[in-house]
Design goal:
Number of strands: 6
Distance between the termini: 62 Å
Order of helices and strands: HHHEHHHEHHEHEHEHEH
Radius of gyration: 19 Å
Strand order of the largest sheet: 1-6-5-2
Shape: globular
Helix content: 40-55%
Strand content: 5-15%
Oligomer: single chain
Largest sheet: 4 strands, parallel
Number of helices: 12
Structural class: alpha/beta
């Protein structure tokens, strides 16, 4: 049986590919393997590599933008509650082609491929983590969307890294408006106190290193609020892993 099962899986995959030829995750271009991107879409993704802030992971245009300790201006002004944050992609048009259908168009099949790139971006974080927890949606938004994209990513990462995860460790205590076009200070005010650890999750969190998972990290206000709630429930430390990171407009200003 151990030899027969892999053979059957390969045969089933070959039959499926014959009936439904593999195509790119974000366009209709043919690819060699299901669940992959074509060369053009792959080139459109900008993977986050150094230089970036040693704490929050925001990308720098060049190493000279780093302050003491390799920190960005925001982290120099005030260190966040989480220890460190990393992301797989820079949030730009290429990343949006992958993440927006996943987030808003029921493309839940993208979770595994996105999570694989997140794992590639921060293997040390996954190695250190005792458990994973997603940023939660408010129940009203969850009902309308039908799934929490951060929870899908956390589950896929947990399976890939063979780590435990708590899909409902955190809850939103109140709905928050869309943060898309708001500045960092306004975001922080809107999410302050908006997250709490579920009572039943506290024993699993106490004394553990928690890896907080989200799809897009912008100013870090949501991650900060979630990390504060987890630390308040006894977590030993909180790190953050996102699919994509939005650049800081202040750092980007020198590009023009």
């Amino acid at each position: 049986m151990p030899l027969i099962q892999p053979t059957l899986r390969r045969l089933g995959g070959a039959v499926l590919d014959a009936l439904l030829p593999p195509h790119c995750l974000t366009c209709d271009s043919p690819v060699e393997q299901q669940g992959t991107l074509c060369a053009a879409c792959f080139r459109g993704l900008h993977f986050l590599t150094p230089p970036f802030c040693a704490c929050c992971g925001v990308p720098f245009l060049h190493a000279g933008q780093a302050g003491p300790g390799g920190l960005c201006p925001s982290c120099l002004e005030r260190r966040p509650a989480f220890t460190a944050a990393r992301a797989a992609f820079r949030y730009d048009e290429g990343a949006k082609r992958l993440l927006l259908p996943f987030k808003h168009a029921d493309r839940t099949d993208l979770a595994g491929a996105i999570a694989a790139q997140m794992a590639r971006a921060a293997p040390e974080m996954l190695a250190r983590a005792d458990l994973l927890a997603p940023v939660p949606l408010h129940w009203r938004r969850l009902v309308s969307r039908r799934y929490n994209q951060a929870a899908l990513l956390a589950g896929a990462l947990a399976r890939q890294a063979r780590k435990p995860w708590l899909p409902d460790a955190l809850r939103r205590t109140r709905p928050t408006p869309s943060l898309g076009e708001r500045g960092a200070a306004e975001r922080a005010v809107l999410v302050e106190g908006a997250f709490a650890v579920r009572q039943g999750a506290r024993p699993a969190i106490a004394g553990r290193r928690v890896l907080l998972v989200d799809d897009v990290m912008t100013s870090g206000a949501t991650a900060e609020a979630c990390a504060a709630a987890l630390l308040g429930a006894g977590a030993a430390a909180v790190e953050v892993l996102a699919a994509a990171r939005v650049p800081d407009p202040r750092l980007e200003a020198s590009r023009t």
